[in-house]
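Late entry, NPW complex.
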Amino acid sequence: MRYIATGQEVFRIDEFATNVIGIPQLVLMERAALRIAEHVKERFPAGAHVLIVVESGNNGGDGIAAGRILMMEGYDVEIYWVDGLKSASTGFDAQYAIAKKLNMKFVDELVNAGYDVIIDGIFGVGLSRAVMGRQAEVIKALNDMDGYKLAIDVPSGIDATTGFLLGTAFHADATVTFGLMKLGLLMGMGYEYAGEVSVVDIGFPKQAIDFVEPRLYTYDPKDVEELLPHRKRDSHKGTYGKVGIIAGSKNMAGAALFSAEAAYRMGCGLVRVCTVEENREIIQSRLPEALLTTYKEDDIDTMRSAMKTVMGWADVLVLGPGLGTGEAAQYLVDKVLRSFDGTVVLDADGINVLSEHMDLFETMHSKLILTPHLMEMSRLTNQSVTDIKANKYDLAREFAKRHNVVVALKDARTVVSDGGLQAYINITGTNGMATGGSGDVLTGIIAGLLAQGMDRFEATKLGVCMHGMAGQAAAEEKGQYSMIAGDIVRSIEQIIAKEAEE
Ligand SMILES: NC(=O)C1=CN([C@@H]2O[C@H](COP(=O)(O)OP(=O)(O)OC[C@H]3O[C@@H](n4cnc5c(N)ncnc54)[C@H](OP(=O)(O)O)[C@@H]3O)[C@@H](O)[C@H]2O)[C@@H](O)CC1
Ligand SMILES: [K+]
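Prediction complete; structure with ligand written out below:
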């Protein structure tokens, strides 16, 4: 598990480290500068021509200090100080004074002098408004220059929390960021402008991070290995649980198939698809491993009896993919949520039906996991997609808390919340996953993990993470444009770590 920090959280960690624990700011700055210098040294030999552009904050102080280290190791370093701020930080003043005593080279003009490396130390996490005037001109000029572009901590002009581009931003090939991954480097324009991000340790003590307790965290591949449910040698199919999938109206068998196959691939013991009679043949021919219960949408007795069968049989239910929003779907959602007291993964049309019947939250017995995309979340909350996007974490959390559910709010960076203070943010996945059926696959993955005994929140987080990993694997094989949901399902087996199989 790895924290993802907002700009504000980094600021508080820094404050705790320096003011409460007493690590001198200049020590942190020197370590930051060393890591910047190392990044350059790993890529360019001594003698390389390096331009460092700074403003008078601590980000600029890091820049000058990195320049000093590189100069001492034989690099040809030039510094351009934009000098457009009213006052300088003490860290900057200290570095500037040292640089002057060492006769470091400061240039008065920005010229495209064939630099090998251009380092951006203009603004870091202290960026507080849109970049304009002189600083904006400088950033534009740097973007037009050739050379390897390296941002210190955060590309100047990118909001470290939101990833918004504030005015003009430095377009980096790489960003070396200190202590913790910043949320803004994963989001929106920040993701594009940061280039390849490396998170480097500069000695923030664990106590400082624990004190601040950043609100977002994510999983790394090694977490996935550890979190996957363990398989026992003396097991049988009942050991791994039974998933019921209530999905797929007429001509929508695909949704049920994707979800069902994903649950099987994820390792659950048995899957029963509960769908309309018209889908019988296709489900049986495409996924003969699944048990099948069917109903007729215009015959309530068949629906009641099918629900009785699947609810009596399953440990976990998926409800909603391809279900439609007509009377039959309304009956099914109402019936299941009121009667089934296990966990239900509610998606797509299931969510749409629920958003028209919010009173169901008061009477339901199911333990719910909701996997809305932004539009579905908008229906659930009556808020605009723009507002939801700008406020995803708080919204997912408030919603989860108010209704006692787990929410996976799907977006390029899906957020999973159980209403607690800390939420999971997903960093796996690819653009290619915005394809029909991708969400159905996710429901099956989550249900497969639930059936093997994981709790709601854990299964949802791990499911979202693995869904993204499977999407990446599919994109590698088929390409972003051509991959389809079936490729994501087929990639699940690739990414299930061998270690999980005892
Ligand atoms: N965290 C740590 O422990 C460590 C942090 N370190 C480094 O410090 C960096 C943060 O430093 P920082 O706080 O001095 O802020 P920084 O980004 O240099 O800029 C602040 C100045 O810019 C100004 N300003 C802001 N926006 C502006 C705009 N649009 N247009 C014009 N001006 C604007 C702002 O003015 P103000 O908002 O106060 O009016 C202020 O004067 C961090 O990213 C990392 O590199 C390392 O040393 C290691 C230890
Ligand atoms: K910067």
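The first strand starts at residue 2 and ends at 5. Will revisit in the morning.
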